[in-house]
Amino acid sequence: MMNRVLITGAAGGIGSALRESLRGVYPVLRLSDRTPVAPARDGEEIDRTDLADMTEVERMVAGCDGIVHLGGISGENTWESILQSNIVGLYNVFEAARRAGTRRIIMATSNHAVGFYPRAQTIDHRVVPRPDSRYGVSKAFSEALASLYADKHGIGFLCTRIGNFGPRPIDSRRLAIWVSPRDYTQLVRIGLEHPDIRFEIVYGVSNNRRSWYDNSNADRLGYRPQDDSEPYAAEILAAEAGQAKDPIAERYQGGMFCAGEYDAAAPPE
Ligand code: 15L
């Protein structure tokens, strides 16, 4: 039974949506973010922890049965920023959870942990990471750290490689990786409530006909996504017709994350 569930990164897009969709599902939601979060309602607690500060993180996780970890940087950035937020901050959350006896963590990893797989290839949860950015490396690190804390300390982890979360897909790449709020909520609830999770990787995507993923591991855990990007496809493709496209971004699943900063003498193959 999950009594108190902590959401880190609660002020962001996914955090704000989960605040609504999980309201009343668990007795208490603790909503944490460095940036301001709207005031607490019944069954909510607000927290302003900086994830880089272990003492604050220990206070943040105290008394929480489950954590949905969305906090940190959600796109490419400098190494120093990624290091503080997504490596040090992540370690602090997992280590504080271990000390506090937290039973489940839902990790917001990303399609960018595997972004250098070509779009022509369907990948499942067993492929080795192919990060497309420093950000993608930090997400691959989160999966490795989750594996360690699952094997050694018995915390149950559901690592959700999120595609692109939103009310609708926003471009042709996102037709393959879109996840709707209700489908992502379903996945988070599986992570918190499934009786038998130790360490699992799944793709946080809807039931998209154009998907690049074999999401059979999520199916096995009971995920039944309701949404498909296809009804949006004609409009999106028509709007993009004739637009100049970057050939490297178009070749790889990570899109523009793959097309930045590469060595011109040895471009991605
Ligand atoms: C992500 O991992 C990011 O958090 C999000 O902002 C988008 O860039 C998304 O991937 C995407 O690939 O569309």
What does this structure look like?
By secondary structure, the chain is an alpha/beta fold. It has one domain (4-259): 3-Layer(aba) Sandwich (Rossmann fold). The protein is built from 10 helices and 9 strands. It has helices at residues 13-21, 54-61, 79-100, 134-153, 174-177, 181-193, 216-220, 230-240, 247-251, 256-259; strands at 4-8, 28-32, 44-47, 66-69, 104-110, 156-162, 164-165, 178-179, 199-204. A 7-stranded parallel beta sheet has the order 3-2-1-4-5-6-9, sandwiched between helices. Strands 7-8 form a two-stranded parallel sheet. Helix 2 crosses helix 3 (79-100) and helix 3 runs parallel beside helix 4 (134-153). The longest helix has 22 residues, at 79-100. The relative contact order is 0.13.
Bound molecule types: D-galactaro-1,5-lactone
The secondary-structure class comes to alpha/beta
Using the alpha-carbon principal axes, give the shape. globular
- Could you describe the largest sheet, including whether it forms a barrel? 7 strands, parallel
The average pLDDT value, as a whole number, equals 98
Low-confidence stretches: none
Task: Please give the alpha-carbon distance between the first and last residues.
Answer: 49 Å
The domain tally reads 1
Radius of gyration, whole Å: 18 Å
What amount of the residues lies in strands?
15-25%
Strand order of the largest sheet: 3-2-1-4-5-6-9
Q: Tell me the helix content.
A: 25-40%
